Each structure stands twice: as C-alpha cells, then as structure tokens.
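Quick one, tokens below. Sequence please?
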C-alpha cells in the first residue's frame, strides 16, 4: 500500500479530528439480523470511528477483537486499521498498490470506502486530489 493512500483516507475522513459517528440505520439493520447479539456491541458496530472513520461492523476485516476494541484503539492501531481495510479485498489492494493510480482506481477505493453513492459527493475526485497532494509532498 502506498503510504499516500493511508494519509489520503485519514485526511478525507477526519483530517485528524477523531470523533465517533453513530449511524442509526446500521443499528436497525444489525438488530434485525443479529437480534440475539449484545446491544452494546451492536451499537459499536453501528458507528464509524478512528482516524479512518471505519465502520464498527468491519472490526474483523481490520483485525480488531471487537467493534469496541476498534473504538478504543490507540492512534497507531487506527493507522494500521486503515491500511488493513485498504488491503482487505483484491480489487482494493490492487488499486492502492499503484504509485500512479488512474481515475478508475480512485473510483474503486471510493466505492469500497464510501459506499455505492460515492459519486454524489465526488468522493473519488476528492481523494484523487488529496492523493496527488501527498505524492507531491513526498517526492518534493
């Protein structure tokens, strides 16, 4: 994974200001599917948090023991979680391995990181700009 990708996601998602975001619609979906699970844990799974605003239901994908563990993770681990999320699927991993990603690579990352409606908020274009800024900084 190019480090610029990790920095891009952190800048886009939080700009370094870490605060949890609860998403009620996810709690409703999770309760319907996993009604027997602990409600506290379902609440953690219904929140995005950390430097990368990773949804709690992705805790296994990034190597956290639980959604709560993702929530209370130190900053160093949050950076690792962003990297693990970006490496979690072959298509995503292929896109973020490129030193010179193209427009389609940014769309792949945007769709997986921000959801199917990423284009409505121009998420792909925003991360492309941020990525290029970090490349310029790194390469001088």
């Amino acid at each position: 994974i190019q480090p610029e990708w990790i920095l891009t996601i952190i800048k886009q998602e939080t700009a370094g200001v870490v605060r949890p975001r609860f998403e009620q619609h996810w709690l409703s979906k999770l309760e319907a599917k996993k009604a027997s699970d602990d409600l506290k844990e379902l609440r953690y799974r219904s929140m995005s948090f950390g430097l990368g605003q990773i949804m709690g239901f992705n805790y296994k994908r990034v190597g956290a023991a639980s959604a709560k563990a993702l929530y209370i993770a130190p900053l160093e681990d949050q950076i690792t979680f962003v990297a693990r999320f970006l490496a979690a699927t072959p298509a995503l991993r292929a896109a973020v391995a490129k030193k010179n990603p193209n427009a389609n690579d940014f769309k792949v990352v945007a769709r997986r990181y921000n959801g199917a409606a990423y284009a409505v908020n121009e998420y792909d274009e925003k991360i492309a700009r941020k990525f290029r800024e970090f490349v310029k900084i790194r390469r001088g």
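The chain has a mean pLDDT of 94. The beta strands are 21-22, 47-49, 54-55.
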